[in-house]
Design a protein that fits this description.
By secondary structure, this protein is an alpha+beta fold. Helices cover 32% and strands 30% of the residues. It folds into 2 domains: 36 residues; 30 residues, no CATH class. Strand 1 and strand 2 form a beta hairpin. It is rod-shaped. The mean pLDDT is 83. The structure holds zinc ion (ZN).
Length: 76
């Protein structure tokens, strides 16, 4: 299974590449040197073009609004 990993060479170039999880080195496309895999924490990808995070927050706000209205009905 291929995953997207970050690689960095000794020149400081960083490259994102789809590799299998056991790949530890690639050839840097910028300088041809060996680039090592950077083990980084899971990043949250927010895509500003399709606005998926915005939609998600709108959905959350709508659900919250409905819950508040429901609680008001129950309390009145
Ligand atoms: Zn490089």
């Amino acid at each position: 299974m291929a995953l997207l990993f970050d690689f960095q060479c000794s020149e400081g170039h960083t490259t994102e590449s789809l590799r299998s999880s056991d790949t530890k080195f690639i050839v840097c496309p910028s300088c041809g040197k060996t680039a090592k895999k950077i083990v980084s924490p899971i990043r949250v990808h927010i895509d500003p073009i399709n606005g998926s995070s915005w939609k998600a927050s709108r959905k959350w706000a709508k659900q919250r609004e409905q819950r508040v209205q429901q609680e008001r009905k129950e309390n009145s």
